[in-house]
Amino acid sequence: MNTQKQWKNKFQISFVAEDHQKIHELSAGLQRLFCGKYLQHLIFENEEANMSVYIGIGKEPLTTNQIIELAAFASQVMKKHHIKHYDLDVSTFIDEAGVDCLEQVAQGVCLGTFEKYKSYEESLRTFTACFCGIPDLQQRKAKAHIAKGQAIAEGILFARELVNCPSNQLTPMEFAGRLMKKLNSLHCKELSIQLIDADKLKKMGMNALYSVGNSSANLPCFLEIEYTPKPESKNRIGLVGKGVTVDTGGYCLKPSASMAGIKGDMAGAAAVAGAIYALAKNGQKKNVSAFLPMCENRISSGSLLPGDVISSYSGKTIEVMNTDAEGRLILADAVAYAVRKGEVTSVLDIATLTGAVVNMLGFSIAGVLCDQEQLFQQFSKAANRSGEQYHRLPFKKEHEEMIKSEVADVKNVGDSCCGTITAGLFIREFAEQTPWIHLDIAGTAWVDKPIWNYQKTGATGAGVSTIYYFCEEE
Ligand code: BES
Ligand code: ZN
Ligand code: ZN
Fold first, then answer.
1. Element (H, E) at 73
2. Per-residue pLDDT tens over the stretch 415-447
3. Which of 102, 136, 154, 295 is the most buried (most CB within 10 A)?
4. DSSP one-letter code for 225
5. Any idea which ligand is nearest the CA of 355?
6. Is 440 helix (H, G, I), strand (E, B) or coil?
7. Torsion angle, CA of 265/376/473/133, rounded to 10 degrees?
8. Does the C-beta of 354 come closer than 6 Å to ligand 1?
């Protein structure tokens, strides 16, 4: 992707609002085919014997998601016609939403090339879009926004590829290996990565993670990634992502009908990895660390049983009431490690954590819990920029009561109600005094039917762009 002053390629895409002058200039015949409705398109030969592609944007002001969607649509139309190089007139977007929105346009263009079962790197290499219609004075800014949007899209596509990968191919160690390989490919000296294997986890007392992961012959591990572009600053955001590469439920076995999505239970860890990749690729200047617990949740003689009481990294004991509530167990250790050893000044955790959030908010809105207003403001701004949809849930003393145990410090499931809130509060127990925000993406990490055209059936890459902006906002 690059910018240029004039049309250069044979295929030239413009975005056209309903009733725009450009429509009135079309022949009567073409006007019958195209009136500028949102996501309508028209391809015709223009006076210079080049091919014009008009894409309708409707008549309402565009939302962030619509900008991504329109750009994705443009690249899908080109892909469908096997056009590898084309010009994209972005002046309509700049006029409407300012040069910043080229981040979303670039993101959409990249996401539009995505195909399942094909490496996204290959698709990105194959198609090139030249951005035209940028005023001279804004060229430099435009280039920076485009680069950022492209880095974010790569993070999203990387996350999707991992989440779509079946569990037999993506064991915890394989998952960790792929992340390290990808991040190392950046040759970024501000990045350092540490892999902690199962033996070491046991020795360190990461027993909640170890106990879940010990259910499988594919042993658990833990990845700590430090990105330090600003060593003089004491601020450091901690990102914690659930990396369960297969969740059968353990002895509280999932019913067959719920087994479909069990390979995608590492979408939280994938989102964090995608965001860190984009931050480092783009040379973002905020210190960020990632803490990624990775394991399988299976049935074996090493598995947890309902009623077990286990210790954890924080020293708190946990009564395991339900072995299918494994995500919060591994996150408990990762969050405790982040706040005690990771020197983080705030902590965000992200996980495909509860079926309850899917029942409540569906597939297009994720649930959020947060215990500090300033942190939530930072997050809200980030979500506004990314266009991803989140809804904050309340919590009170009575919810905290629900996870108190008779035999341990906490238990891993609450009463029959408020499943998303109690799951979050369980994790909060381990964040201690550090400001904490929690994202439950069980509904948004995966779509059977795409909601926006920049999605494809399967993994969505949920969380990557918002986490990126969250780290930038800090
Ligand atoms: N990974 C699941 C949550 C999930 C459900 C993700 C549906 C995606 C789609 C999690 O480990 C789980 O099984 N949670 C249980 C908790 C319950 C036992 C308290 C759930 O939500 O049913
Ligand atoms: Zn589970
Ligand atoms: Zn799970």
1. helix 64-80
2. 899 999 999 999 999 999 999 999 999 999 999
3. 295
4. E
5. 1
6. strand
7. 80
8. yes
